């Protein structure tokens, strides 16, 4: 089974990092190589441009792909299904025009020119509005085009808004909201290996922002401690195998949201817990 992932750019590192955390460690993958083996002999990773990945999957060069939702939409592939939102690479495709110009709404673009790296998404967006500007495809530096009279407006990616601001462009409308997705070709989705990979990746996402809390609690205080743990489901309670432990303590383990850890420690301590340990969680398979 082959997974196509971005070969460079901003999505490359976080994608490799995610595969590694999911246990799909890459092997024999030197810089500039086009593919790498993984610890799983059935899984190979292909490196391709973020924009080409949907085609790779649709055509059968790869079975699974990881790239931005914007790229999947732009490729207009109809034989791939989304399997998981990986929740990084968040950005928006927006319609933007010069801050001090005449274009302040979609309607102002009738008969005008819009430049974009995403002509298909842009065409679909305008088809829904009934306004039909000319769409000019560019391959980068889209923000420049309104200032050199190539276009009246642009459809481009924004996340922090810095690039738009630097180029004195204002958002007119939102076209699409994107993040990185795992997707697969529909004729291979029954393969159990696909579910294995999906589960491994989603277990990393589930573990994000969670901590594992362990503590010892006198049996007599167990109910009080249990009451103050905001766990995912109830905490796990285990006997401590210690014959000399005449107090009768138990070990309590719980998965807690990172944001609740500080308060929970204070609360369980006050309720009688001791020897409290907090650890990170690599993966959480639900
Ligand atoms: N500023 C951004 N913030 C968040 N995500 C972004 C941003 N720019 C691009 N992305 C996401 O990354 C994907 C790949 O972007 P792009 O093709 O521009 O590659 P890149 O990482 O910029 O590398 P390069 O442009 O050097 O090839 C986009 O389709 C989008 O999903
Ligand atoms: O809202 P911002 O945080 O400023 O991000 C938006 C910019 O990010 C992307 O460019 P990128 O940095 O990938 O450069 P590129 O044009 O070389 O792809 C995108 O094409 C925008 O220009
Ligand atoms: Mg880019």
TrEMBL record:
Residues 49-201 form the ATP phosphoribosyltransferase catalytic domain. It comes from the Archaea. InterPro entries: ATP-PRT_HisG_long, ATP_PRibTrfase_cat, ATP_PRibTrfase_HisG, HisG_C, N-reg_PII-like_a/b, N-reg_PII/ATP_PRibTrfase_C. Keywords: Amino-acid biosynthesis, ATP-binding, Cytoplasm, Glycosyltransferase, Histidine biosynthesis, Magnesium, Metal-binding, Nucleotide-binding, Transferase. Pathway: Amino-acid biosynthesis; L-histidine biosynthesis; L-histidine from 5-phospho-alpha-D-ribose 1-diphosphate: step 1/9. It is found in: Cytoplasm. Signal peptide: none annotated. GO terms for molecular function: ATP binding; ATP phosphoribosyltransferase activity; magnesium ion binding. Its cofactor is Mg(2+). GO terms for biological process: L-histidine biosynthetic process. It catalyses: 1-(5-phospho-beta-D-ribosyl)-ATP + diphosphate = 5-phospho-alpha-D-ribose 1-diphosphate + ATP. SUPFAM superfamilies: GlnB-like, Periplasmic binding protein-like II. Pfam families: HisG (PF01634), HisG_C (PF08029). Feedback inhibited by histidine. Catalyzes the condensation of ATP and 5-phosphoribose 1-diphosphate to form N'-(5'-phosphoribosyl)-ATP (PR-ATP). Has a crucial role in the pathway because the rate of histidine biosynthesis seems to be controlled primarily by regulation of HisG enzymatic activity. Belongs to the ATP phosphoribosyltransferase family. Long subfamily. This is ATP phosphoribosyltransferase.
């Amino acid at each position: 089974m082959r997974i196509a992932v971005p070969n460079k750019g901003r999505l490359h590192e976080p994608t490799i990092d995610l595969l590694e955390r999911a246990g799909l460690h890459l092997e024999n993958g030197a810089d500039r190589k086009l593919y790498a083996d993984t610890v799983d002999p059935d899984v190979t990773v292909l490196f391709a441009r973020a924009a080409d990945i949907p085609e790779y999957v649709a055509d059968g060069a790869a079975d699974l792909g990881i790239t931005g939702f914007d790229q999947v939409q732009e490729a207009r592939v109809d034989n791939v299904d989304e399997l998981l939102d990986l929740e990084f690479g968040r950005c928006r495709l927006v319609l933007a025009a010069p801050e001090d110009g005449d274009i302040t709404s979609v309607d102002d673009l009738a008969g005008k020119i819009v430049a974009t790296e995403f002509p298909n998404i842009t065409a679909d967006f305008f088809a829904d509005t009934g306004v039909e500007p000319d769409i000019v495809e560019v391959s980068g530096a889209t923000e420049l085009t309104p200032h050199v009279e190539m276009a009246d407006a642009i459809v481009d990616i924004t996340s922090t808004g810095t690039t738009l601001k630097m180029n004195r462009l204002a958002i007119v409308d939102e076209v699409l909201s994107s993040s990185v997705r795992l997707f697969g070709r529909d004729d291979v989705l029954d393969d159990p290996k696909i579910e294995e990979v999906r589960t491994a990746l989603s277990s990393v996402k589930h573990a994000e922002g969670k901590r594992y809390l362990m503590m010892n609690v006198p049996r007599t205080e167990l109910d009080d401690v249990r009451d103050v743990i905001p766990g995912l489901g109830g905490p796990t309670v285990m006997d401590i195998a210690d014959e000399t432990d005449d107090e009768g303590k138990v070990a309590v383990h719980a998965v807690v949201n990172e944001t609740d850890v500080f308060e929970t420690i204070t609360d369980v301590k006050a309720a009688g817990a001791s020897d409290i340990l907090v650890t990170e969680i690599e993966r959480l398979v639900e």
